[in-house]
Design a protein that fits this description.
With 368 residues, this protein is of the alpha+beta class. The chain folds into three domains: 157 residues; 92 residues, no CATH class; 74 residues, Non-ribosomal Peptide Synthetase Peptidyl Carrier Protein, Chain A (Orthogonal Bundle). The chain contains eleven helices and twelve strands. The strands form four sheets. It has a six-stranded antiparallel sheet with strand order 4-11-5-6-7-10. A two-stranded parallel sheet has the order 1-12. A two-stranded antiparallel ribbon has the order 2-3. A hairpin with a 2-residue loop joins strand 6 and strand 7. Helix 6 packs antiparallel against helix 7 and helix 8 packs across helix 9. The longest helix has 26 residues.
């Protein structure tokens, strides 16, 4: 594997700490071995909705094998006192109880971390990198006393002892892409739209990260692949926006389902062919009054603490901007200007650009 610093943004919350451990034992760049396999292989999930999220045991076992790690022990413990901290102690527990992640007391989900011995307690190492509606998760180290560790694992945890195995040598990509029509149709037609969009938010997040990881691992840096990855990013943001809106009782943009189907279909050429992929901009070149632009810019400044620089109206480079802040900007504009954006305008290409936001206000009947 090439020597390359670990980019924590490429991994899900199970993979990332296996990647951390693999780079420790086999050297910088080993983590890229996780990207050799690219899949779209849905399985039955909750609420009758399919999922691409692997089962934890399978995910850990396959990932460890790809990284040249050996699972020497697997145990489900019932209390923190049963934990044996060490250089290969890998733990999966409920993020709802973990005080160092923003899911703490907010959302139940399986989350991994490494546990090392420390004076009067343990050191937790967690490389997870993600922005959530409750705040940012960033890689770090945290020291927990015995009582704090017990509070973090009230229901026990799934633990693995991992050791160095033979370094990974296989470099051939393995791309397994199932037919996507049923997957898309199930999410599009599910009767509970709140559950469907909430579930699809996770699915598109996982699909986007896995494709970025595969491209990094295989050195796929063509313009076509970069455009395809950007389209996955935009889709994931659009699904999140749609989920928030549907949860608030508003209409959803049905165009996101053909867009999902197009992304899944384009995987075949992006990761196995040479066809160019073109992503047209949906931001209209429209004349916007100075008053409207000033109002929209003021809202952006209020939410982000910094207004866009005149002449550079894209929001992505402003510190603190994310999908969650994008939603706050939309809701604040609607409240302050007395409009409701059309469901079909809830696409990142419009909502990450001052002119696009202004156009959405005008389309919603606003004038200032």
């Amino acid at each position: 594997m090439p020597s390359e610093p670990l980019d924590h943004r490429l991994f899900d919350c199970v993979q990332v700490n296996l990647a951390e451990l693999a780079d420790r034992v086999h050297g910088e760049g080993t983590h890229l071995a996780l990207g050799r396999i690219l899949r779209f292989w849905p399985r039955p999930g909750a609420d009758g909705l399919p999922t691409v999220e692997p089962r934890v045991d399978e995910h850990v076992t396959e990932s460890a094998d790809l990284l040249g790690l050996r699972v020497t022990r697997r145990e489900r413990i019932t209390a923190a006192d049963d934990l044996a901290p060490g250089p290969g102690c890998y733990v999966v527990a409920d993020a709802y109880h973990l005080p160092w992640v923003p899911y703490h007391r907010n959302q139940h989900l399986e989350h991994s971390f490494l546990v090392e011995p420390a004076d009067e307690g343990v050191t937790v190492v967690d490389g997870y990198h993600n922005d959530t509606q409750w705040g940012a998760a960033r890689p770090g180290r945290w020291t927990l006393g015995h009582a704090e560790l017990a509070e973090a694992l009230p229901d026990g945890a799934l633990t693995f002892d991992l050791a160095a195995g033979d370094p990974a040598t296989e470099r051939t990509p393995l791309v397994q892409l199932a037919e996507a029509g049923t997957f898309v149709a199930t999410y599009a037609d599910h009767p509970d739209r709140v559950r469907a969009l909430r579930g699809l938010t996770l699915q598109t997040w996982l699909l986007t990260r896995s494709r970025r990881l595969h491209a990094a691992a295989m050195g796929l840096g063509t313009d076509a692949v970069r455009a395809h990855l950007d389209e996955w990013d935009a889709l994931a943001k659009q699904v999140y926006l749609a989920s928030r809106r549907v949860s608030a009782g508003r209409a959803e943009p049905r165009a996101l389902f053909p867009r999902l189907a197009d992304c899944l279909a384009a995987d075949h050429t992006a990761f196995g062919g040479t066809a160019d992929i073109v992503t047209p901009s949906t931001v209209d070149a429209v004349e916007v009054s100075p008053e409207l632009r000033e109002s929209v810019t003021a809202v952006i400044g209020t939410v982000l603490g910094t207004e866009p620089v005149p002449g550079a109206p894209a929001l992505g480079d402003i510190p603190g901007f994310s999908s969650f802040r994008m939603m706050e900007i939309v809701e604040r504009i609607e409240s302050d200007l007395g409009v409701e954006f059309a469901a079909e305008d809830l696409v990142p290409e419009k909502l990450t650009h001052v002119d696009g936001l202004c156009r959405a206000v005008l389309d919603a009947g606003g004038t200032r």
